[in-house]
């Protein structure tokens, strides 16, 4: 089966145990205002243009079947582009880059298994991420089944916004499940991510049904959710419904901002920032006081 | 920070003082030779060694526990005019100011050596004999060219020996070896050529044993004299203890850890005074020292802390003497490096894990002292204890470039392939930088540097140098008329084989001259089978004689360049051969678009078979071609992809290359990707390098990777690094080393060297102080691609 991915990232070490390859799957029902992978909002093939790398050679224009120009970020060009990626393939400076590509599950398997020795030695494996990893449910089902049958250690990073019954067989194959808890307040959650947190919280409660190790993650962002109250409520929720689950606090970062520009998208205009290391430490203490084990994959 | 204030004081002196040249050894050596004219050469050299031990100044410097120096200075280089004096004569006026590895030398010293020492050696040195016997054709390719270089084998002594402490030195002491030699002499007579030659050999052994014992006795006397005058009671006691130790070793087997360390240093010193060697290796220190450590600790006469202090004192001793080399050689072996390789970990002769407490203390000593010597190597086997691997990656995270990390299995396999018995192969240690080696061996491990990219240049420039326009190698057709990729590849292989042949010719010439001119009685005394066979090392006296190693440089540049020609010219047909040749003839100037296209072709180091297959083919051809030649002992020549700093001088002599590299820029080192082109992940770089059938290159292989320091800052990051290393080795690779200093730190060190005098970095196969590298060398280290993200 074919699916759409943002990229394969070999040598990931912050997305679960050991050395891993992270498979970023395209498409996401949320619209988090701080999103660092905006290319994954939908699964439409698209091509990024990094203007600073461009030397203006024009090779890309010679292969464009729509007769587009060099600057993909002009709104008219962007509107016309169908993301076929021919320009990215010929660009000598990697100024154009395929951001969403269609791939066979088997191709992904061939590619990720190359590093099996590295996974085995480090206790690592494969992590599904996104976008929202579960959005292409059938594709993930096939892909995770193939990799499960090969004996790889599997992990998933998910927003928790999915149809539980449909995703359940996938989660059963996982060794580790990372689920985000972006805000305990339903209104705020809706405001910042575009969806209510009800479905997420319901799904989260049921993670105890699986054998997998569960880690609930909070992307800690000023001024969105970096309050003692929110962290405490989150910890209490996790502790109550998932007594064995661990939590990880991830400070906000801006690594994804370049991609907005490269895709001709508007940058998030909110003034987000990461809490100080002292405040992060204080938040971790709150969770530990509640009785939640706090982990870090740094 | 060193283990004790004493070691820290010694360390600070080492970091803050410049090496100075002493001519004392050369003076005594020369005067001795004037007295022994007409004697057999082995006897003359042994007598000169004895005279040196008998007359050289004996200095015990402040704070020292381990004593013995090469001359009057604490940080000191010596001269060996019998190998070559001409380069010293030419270069010594600039010693203090040269870019790489400067030395202090006074006008008075220079005047003395020009008047009293050099004239004697005129027409008598190894270098002059080598040049006299070398054809113009070989000189054009292989003398000071950067295409093929062998001068470390005829301007210098060879070194590249590992003393056999296990079975010879610690068992017998030099007193015991002398007695053995005397016993052989009593049995022999001179009524045959064989008998005569053996008698000469054993007489030379008696002389060198007497010499090194005499030197130790003089240190004992000196220590007692100093003790008598010493006001400080603590130091007085230390000096008396030094005297007691020097009374015993190296004449007798050591009885304690302290005596064993002093024995080791005297042996090291003897080797240095006998020939100013590179790669005179301490070998498996943690193995042969452990019985003494264990016995002393069990007896309650030594603590772990005492042992660490002694080890750190030894580390600084090994770092204080300086290998005196020409500016040309210094470009290849930058950073005052003596290549005294010390190997810890691995397996025992019978195959068990060999790590012990000393293995850990050795890692600790390097972390504490930041000494650039010994060249600390570790052997990692598949079942290596997690604690040891963690200690190794911890040291890597400190950014010193130490230790050099080797696969126990690959090293074993390389030795098996070179003809060793399994038990000996399991007992391997490193020689120099990354050469798997064994202590009962006579070998030239870094014999020739072979510039792969030069062969490509000659293939694509009608046999001429692109920079000078001079005809150097074989005739070739106009490159613009190549009509298939195979034709280009064959042209490369033809020139490549020719360069290998010239390297072989020059090395056989050098080998013959070594037998005639520079036998090695002191080194031979330290190797078991030389004594049994009654034969000097140069004549093949050792248990194993291994053919000279030819080191390939630039495989990545050639593979990348051939991939460009293959893909753009003959597959896509988007570029003509003429366009590529015009572009490199013009150093890519005005060809930005074509250069960008060339740079976009797959590059070695990214796990892309398109180009990695070309690299593998070149590697295999290299092995086959080199291996067919035999040396003077009828042993096959060996191939290697070692590092050293040879990728700079070999790049300097070349024009631009089709991979996009510009003229005179460095080429690639060992099996490492070309700088900045391994843009995928370190895993991909490792997978590419592991494709090269590393175990056939018995002379060793080297992969250098830069990792961002953040990656290994945590225990978790270090554990992942350990897993990467083990995985790389499981793929069949032999060696990897990491530089983890941040680019920012390196730039700061370049701007403010005074604040970074002890910053150690990995050059290639070895680490040295960053501030002791020339600007161009520093730049090339900064340019290595740092893998910043996971």
Distance between the termini of chain A: 34 Å
Tell me the domain tally of chain A. 2
Binned strand content of chain B:
5-15%
* Inertia-based shape of chain A: globular
Largest interface: A-B, 25 and 28 residues
Helical residues, percent of chain A: 25-40%
Order of helices and strands of chain A: EEEHHHEHHEHEHEHHEHEHHE
Mean pLDDT figure of chain B = 93
**CATH hierarchy, class of the largest domain in chain A:** Alpha Beta
What composes the largest sheet of chain B? 6 strands, mixed
Q: What value does the Rg of chain A take, in angstroms?
A: 20 Å
> What is Rg of chain B?
26 Å
Uncertain segments of chain B are none
Mean pLDDT of chain A: 92
Structural class of chain A: alpha/beta
| Number of E-state strands of chain B | 21
**The named CATH superfamily of the largest domain in chain A:** Aldolase class I
Helical region count of chain A?
A: 12
Poorly predicted ranges of chain A (pLDDT <50, ≥5 residues)? none
Task: Report on the architecture of this protein.
The complex is a heterodimer of chains A (298) and B (790). Chain A has 298 residues and is an alpha/beta fold. Chain A folds into 2 domains: 236 residues, TIM Barrel (Alpha-Beta Barrel); 44 residues, no CATH class. In chain A, 35% of the residues lie in helices and 21% in strands. Chain A contains 12 helices and 10 strands. In chain A, helix 6 links the parallel strand 5 and strand 6. The longest helix of chain A is centred in the last third of the chain and has 14 residues. Chain A is globular. Chain B is an alpha/beta fold. Among the domains of chain B are: 249 residues, no CATH class; 225 residues, no CATH class. Chain B has 31 helices and 21 strands. Chain B has a 6-stranded mixed beta sheet with strand order 7-8-9-18-17-21. A 4-stranded mixed beta sheet of chain B has the order 3-13-15-16. In chain B, strands 1-2-6 form a 3-stranded parallel beta sheet. In chain B, a hairpin with a 3-residue loop joins strand 10 and strand 11. In chain B, helix 2 crosses helix 3, helix 2 runs parallel beside helix 5 and helix 7 packs across helix 20. The longest helix of chain B is centred in the first third of the chain and has 37 residues. The model of chain B has no long low-confidence stretch (mean pLDDT 93). Chains A and B meet through strand 1 and helix 5 of A and helix 25, helix 28 and helix 29 of B.
């Amino acid at each position: 089966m074919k699916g759409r991915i943002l990229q394969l990232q070999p040598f990931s070490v912050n997305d679960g145990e050991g050395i891993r390859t992270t498979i970023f799957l395209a498409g996401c029902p949320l619209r988090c205002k701080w999103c660092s992978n905006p290319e994954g909002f939908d699964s439409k093939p698209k091509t990024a243009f990094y203007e600073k790398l461009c030397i203006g050679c024009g090779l890309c224009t010679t292969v464009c079947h729509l007769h587009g120009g060099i600057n993909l970020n002009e709104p008219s060009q962007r509107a016309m582009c169908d993301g076929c990626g021919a320009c990215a393939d010929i660009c000598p400076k990697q100024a154009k880059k395929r951001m969403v590509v269609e791939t066979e599950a088997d191709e992904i398997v061939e590619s990720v298994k190359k590093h099996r020795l590295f996974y085995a030695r480090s206790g690592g494996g494969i992590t599904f991420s996104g976008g929202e990893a579960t959005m292409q449910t059938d594709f993930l089902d096939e892909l995770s089944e193939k990799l499960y049958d090969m004996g790889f250690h599997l992990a998933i990073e998910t927003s928790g916004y999915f149809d539980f019954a449909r995703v359940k067989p996938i989660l059963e194959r996982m060794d580790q499940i990372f689920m985000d808890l972006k805000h305990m307040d339903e209104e705020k959650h809706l405001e910042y991510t575009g969806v209510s947190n009800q479905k997420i919280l319901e799904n989260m409660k049921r993670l105890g049904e699986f054998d997998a190790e569960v880690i609930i993650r909070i992307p800690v962002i000023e001024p969105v959710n970096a309050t003692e109250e929110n962290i405490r409520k989150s910890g209490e929720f996790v502790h109550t419904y998932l007594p064995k689950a661990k939590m990880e606090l991830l400070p906000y970062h801006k690594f994804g901002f370049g991609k907005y520009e490269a895709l001709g998208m508007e940058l998030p205009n909110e003034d987000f920032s990461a809490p100080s290391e002292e405040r992060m430490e204080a938040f971790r203490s709150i969770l530990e006081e509640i009785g939640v084990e706090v982990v870090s994959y740094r | 920070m060193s283990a004790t204030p004493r070691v820290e004081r010694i360390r600070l002196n080492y970091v803050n003082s410049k090496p100075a040249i002493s001519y004392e050894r050369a003076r005594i050596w020369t005067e001795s030779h004037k007295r022994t004219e007409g004697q057999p050469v082995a006897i003359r050299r042994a007598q000169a060694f004895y005279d040196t031990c008998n007359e050289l100044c004996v200095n015990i410097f402040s704070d020292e526990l381990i004593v013995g120096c090469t001359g009057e200075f604490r940080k000191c280089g010596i001269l060996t005019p019998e190998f070559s004096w001409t380069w010293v004569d030419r270069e010594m006026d600039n010693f203090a100011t040269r870019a790489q590895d400067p030395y202090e030398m006074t006008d008075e010293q220079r005047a003395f050596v020009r008047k009293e020492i050099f004239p004697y050696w005129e027409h008598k040195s190894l270098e002059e004999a080598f040049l006299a016997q070398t054809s113009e054709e070989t000189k054009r390719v292989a003398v000071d060219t950067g295409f093929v270089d062998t001068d470390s084998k005829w301007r210098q002594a060879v070194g590249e020996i590992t003393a056999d402490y296990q079975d010879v030195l610690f068992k017998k002491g030099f007193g015991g070896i002398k007695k053995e030699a005397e016993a052989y002499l009593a049995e022999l007579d001179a009524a045959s050529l064989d008998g005569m030659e053996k008698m000469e050999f054993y007489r030379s052994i008696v002389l060198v044993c007497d010499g090194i014992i005499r030197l130790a006795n003089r240190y004992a006397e000196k220590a007692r004299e100093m003790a008598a005058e010493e006001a400080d009671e603590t130091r007085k006691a230390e000096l008396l203890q030094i005297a007691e130790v020097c009374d015993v070793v190296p004449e007798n087997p050591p009885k304690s850890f302290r005596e064993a360390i002093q024995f080791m240093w005297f042996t090291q010193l003897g080797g240095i005074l006998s020939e100013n060697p590179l790669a005179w290796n301490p070998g498996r220190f943690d193995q042969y020292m452990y019985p003494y450590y264990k016995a002393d600790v069990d007896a309650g006469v030594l603590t772990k802390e005492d042992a660490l202090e002694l080890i750190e004192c030894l580390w600084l001793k090994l770092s204080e003497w300086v290998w005196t080399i020409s500016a040309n050689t210094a470009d290849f072996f930058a950073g005052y490096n003596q290549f005294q390789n010390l190997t810890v970990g691995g397996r025992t002769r019978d195959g068990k894990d060999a790590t012990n407490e000393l293995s850990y203390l050795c890692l600790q000593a390097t972390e504490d002292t930041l000494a650039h010597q010994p060249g600390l190597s570790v052997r990692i086997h598949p079942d290596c204890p997690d604690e040891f691997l963690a200690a190794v990656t911890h040291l890597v995270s400190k950014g010193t470039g130490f230790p050099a990390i080797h696969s126990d299995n690959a090293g074993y396999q390389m030795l098996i392939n070179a003809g060793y018995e399994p038990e000996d192969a399991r007992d391997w240690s490193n020689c120099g930088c990354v050469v798997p080696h064994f202590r009962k061996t006579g070998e030239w491990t870094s014999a020739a540097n072979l510039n792969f990219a030069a062969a490509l240049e000659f293939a694509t420039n009608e046999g001429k140098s692109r920079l000078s326009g001079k005809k150097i190698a074989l005739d070739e057709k106009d490159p613009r008329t190549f009509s298939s990729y195979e034709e280009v590849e064959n042209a490369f292989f033809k020139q490549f084989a020719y360069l290998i042949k010239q390297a072989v010719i020059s090395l056989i010439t050098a080998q013959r001259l070594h037998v005639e001119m520079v036998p090695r009685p002191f080194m031979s005394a330290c190797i078991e089978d030389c004594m049994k066979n009654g034969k000097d090392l140069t004549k093949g006296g050792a248990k194993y004689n291994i053919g000279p190693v030819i080191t390939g440089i630039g495989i990545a540049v050639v593979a990348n360049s051939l991939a460009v020609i293959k893909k753009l010219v003959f597959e896509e047909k988007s570029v003509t051969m003429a366009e590529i040749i015009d572009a490199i003839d013009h150093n890519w100037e005005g060809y930005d678009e074509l250069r960008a296209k060339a740079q976009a072709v797959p590059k070695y180091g990214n796990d892309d078979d398109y180009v990695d297959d070309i690299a593998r083919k070149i590697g295999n051809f290299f092995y086959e071609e080199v291996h067919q030649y035999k040396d003077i002992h009828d042993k096959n020549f060996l191939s290697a992809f070692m590092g050293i700093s040879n990728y700079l001088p070999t790049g300097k002599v070349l024009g631009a290359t089709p991979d996009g590299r510009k003229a005179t820029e460095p080429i690639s080192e060992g099996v490492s990707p070309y700088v900045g082109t391994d843009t995928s992940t370190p895993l991909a770089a490792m997978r590419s390098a592991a494709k090269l059938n590393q175990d056939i290159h018995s002379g060793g292989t080297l992969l250098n990777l830069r990792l961002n320091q953040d990656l290994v800052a945590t225990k978790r990051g270090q554990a992942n690094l350990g897993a990467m290393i083990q995985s790389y080795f499981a793929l069949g690779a032999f060696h990897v080393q990491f530089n983890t200093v941040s680019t920012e730190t390196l730039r700061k060190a370049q701007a403010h060297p005074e604040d970074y005098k002890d910053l150690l970095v990995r050059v290639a196969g070895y680490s040295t102080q960053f501030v002791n590298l020339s600007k161009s060398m520093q730049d090339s280290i900064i340019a290595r691609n740092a893998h910043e993200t996971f």
